[in-house]
Design brief:
single chain, alpha/beta, Rossmann fold, 2 domains, 5-stranded parallel sheet, 4-stranded parallel sheet, 12 helices
Length: 307
Amino acid sequence: MILALLVAGCGDASPHIAQPRSAGPTIVSLNPCTDAILAELAGPEQVLALSHYSRDPRASSMDAARARQFGVTGGTVEEVLALKPDMVVASEFMPPATRAGLEDLGIRVETFGIASSIAESDAQIRRIAALAGNPVGGEVLLAKIDAALAAATPAAGAAPIPTVLWQPSGIVPGEGALVSELLRRAGFSSHSAAIGMGQADYLSLEQVIASPPELLLVAGQERSQLHPALDALPDMQRAAFDPGLLYCGGPTIIRAMERLEEVREQIEAESPPPTPSSEEEGANKRRGNLPLLFRGGGRGVVAEPQT
């Protein structure tokens, strides 16, 4: 019951559910993906600093206004020590010397990998929520993510849209990436996988021209991704995709699904209605020659041929 009330009250005006400072340890985050999750679960009184990436629009996965409510750190041992946190959360790729230095000073270090699925993202949220002393807030965030996934799921029977997600540096995601799962959930299929490409493979402009997808989602600013030759592909639609939505789970999933839902709705609104087959056209013509006679007492319409 408590969780239901919290979910109902967790709208845009209250994007995070923070616990009192005494409820959990003070934390410094050194990773943009953990930044976004912690910012949903706790306030600046508990999260003493986020990574400097979250202040950089080119690297952040969270809302810039929300990020500015927190302090930032470059992640050196000296900077972190000055903040006196109880805990540091960071990437699995954290330099071993930095981790050892922090642990030698009595600071607990918890590391996280890159979520490659919605299930892995859910597990990370629950783990971070537990570390922050706010498990209920974690469940509220998960409920918001589930709602975004459900809202962006197309109607049953809708045909998937063959799509290429063209990322920074001209590469494409593999089928095992989190963003690929989000694309499938939102009703898009991977055109790059269909032509034999995998994780981080480079997609050239020539390949796009030779085998254009129905939709090109552009998340980079390479010369090839902005080339005027793309304008000469009338059967291919293009849409922008924020690179900040590519790599993190957590609340980033909500924004990613909202964008994918928006793109799909735009495509469906602009697509012409399907052309009827010659058989359907003949049936429609025959039906057009039948006068409709309403007979009393009947629920429907009875058609009789003309004489």
